Amino acid sequence: MCIAGGSINTLTRAAPGRITDTARDPSTRKLNTHEHLFYEGDDRDSVYVVESGWVKLYRTLIDGQRQVVGFANAGSILGLESDGAFANGCETITPATVRIIPAHRLTDMCLRDGKLAEQLLRQVGRQLGAAQAQLATVGAQSAEQKIATFLLSIADLCDAKHDGEFDLPMRRGDMAEFLGLRLETVSRKMSEFQRRGWIKMTSLYHCRIARRQLLEDLADGGGAEEGTVLLAC
Question: Is 197:203 a contact under the CB 8 Å cutoff?
Answer without folding.
Answer: no
